[in-house]
Amino acid sequence: MRITIIGSGYVGTTIAACFAELGHEVTAIDIDEAVVETLNDGRAPITEPGLDELLEKHIGNHLTATTSYDAVPESDVTFLAIGTPSNENGSIELTGLEAAAEATGDALADKSDRHLVIIKSTVTPPSIGAVLEPVVSKGANGNDAIEVGMNPEFLREGSAVSDFLNPDKLVFGTRSAWATDRLHDVFEPLIGTESSVVETDPETAAMIKYANNAFFASKISLVNDLGNICKEFGLDAYEVMDAIGLDDRISDRFLRSGVGWGGSCFPKDVNAIIAAARKEGYDPAVLEAAVAVNDRQPRRMLELLTSHVALEDARIAVLGLSFKPDTDDIRNSRAIPVVQSLLDQGVELAAYDPVAADEMAALFPTIEYADSAGDALFESDGALILTDWDEFSDLESEFDAMATPVVIDGRRCINRRDGIIYEGLTW
């Protein structure tokens, strides 16, 4: 099929490459000429395992990038994959998505054949009928051949390509059987015994995405709360969670306690659904508590550090800056509040991350960014582990080069051993 994708950020780039891998003819559209040029060179504007390989394979074959909307009326389906960042009150900012929706409608104004416009962006349920459908219609001068639907994404940074090609579920939110059938055609190579297809309306489809992420975030915060209690009792939270994870009503996924959740999805989506609920007059107390627990974890990590190290004139190594391994994304990384707090106290910092140093340097240009974990640890008075990169589990002699071998592990990615003062955040 012929597919156009508006927006070449994290989601747009990933789904463009993956749709091309499924055999579709894909045109990626973005207003940023530098992003378009990067894609047409076969390179991804983001760090994501497997993505560069797909782009190199399909650019110039099944996939092209452009700043023009000319391919939209010639396509069978258009996906809107524009970011919806958070406003100060937690609600989502729709300006960019509205502009793309109107431009898409304008490109389809003279099309007589039916055309499906699918919202891939994460949006609250009321915004579909109240904002986005009218905007598309306005751009298209009321062309009733255009239908708007919702197909939320469930991609995890660091495994997005695999998640797309091996989905647990596909959610089709539409208002007609024709639109549902069209989405079945698009995703037909992925529909089999291993994935479930949920057919519903656009608003319910949008809510499924928020419910998904709110549940995961709340589960992690509950585990962190229990982990904090275990730490106070002198117990290993991981031993406790290994046991409760054997219950099939709970499962062992998202039971790793630590410094908390970050990234572009959980914080934004939980805050957005909280703001949307408040607007309707409902106080979502459990979700608010999940956010509060998450915000508290970096502070607890610093409290453990200060119980062993006097921060005045100290040099502290910060290992891991991205919000999770296998990505350079620092959005809502737990390293940000940790670094900010230490800087506020006048601490000398040496930070290291395999891929995210440049991104963090844009926020904190004055701190030292080491070329290796060993360089960051050298003669430091303490170390904080904030991202569970695999290479950190292999550190041995590097800890011996510390001035004071105090290690506070927020991700349980190194082993306790003789010669270092080791504190796990919840174990």
Q: What would your notes on this structure say?
A:
This protein has 427 residues and is an alpha/beta fold. Helices cover 41% and strands 15% of the residues. The protein has helices at residues 10-21, 33-40, 51-58, 95-107, 125-139, 160-165, 177-187, 202-233, 237-244, 266-279, 285-306, 335-344, 357-363, 373-377, 397-400; strands at residues 2-6, 25-29, 63-66, 77-80, 115-119, 146-150, 169-173, 196-200, 315-319, 348-352, 368-369, 382-385, 406-409, 421-424. The strands form three sheets. Strands 3-2-1-4-5-6 form a six-stranded parallel sheet, sandwiched between helices. Helix 4 runs parallel beside helix 5, helix 5 packs antiparallel against helix 8 (202-233) and helix 8 (202-233) packs parallel to helix 11 (285-306). The radius of gyration is 23 Å and the shape is globular. The mean pLDDT is 96.
Can you lay out the helices and strands and say which pair or pack?
Blueprint: E1 2-6, H1 10-21, E2 25-29, H2 33-40, H3 51-58, E3 63-66, E4 77-80, H4 95-107, E5 115-119, H5 125-139, E6 146-150, H6 160-165, E7 169-173, H7 177-187, E8 196-200, H8 202-233, H9 237-244, H10 266-279, H11 285-306, E9 315-319, H12 335-344, E10 348-352, H13 357-363, E11 368-369, H14 373-377, E12 382-385, H15 397-400, E13 406-409, E14 421-424
Parallel strand pairs: 1-2, 1-4, 2-3, 4-5, 5-6, 7-8, 9-10, 9-12, 10-11, 12-13, 13-14
Helix pairs in contact: 1-3, 4-5, 5-8, 8-9, 8-10, 8-11
Secondary-structure element pattern, one letter each: EHEHHEEHEHEHEHEHHHHEHEHEHEHEE
Given the C-alpha coordinates, what overall shape results? Answer: globular
- How far do the termini sit from each other? 52 Å
Give the percentage of residues in beta strands.
5-15%
According to DSSP, the number of beta strands is 14
Helix content: 40-55%
Give a quick account of the main beta sheet: strands, pairing sense, barrel closure. Answer: 6 strands, parallel
Mean pLDDT: 96
Number of helices: 15
The structure class reads: alpha/beta
Low-confidence stretches: none
Rg computed from alpha carbons, rounded to a whole number of angstroms: 23 Å
Which strand order does the major sheet show?
3-2-1-4-5-6
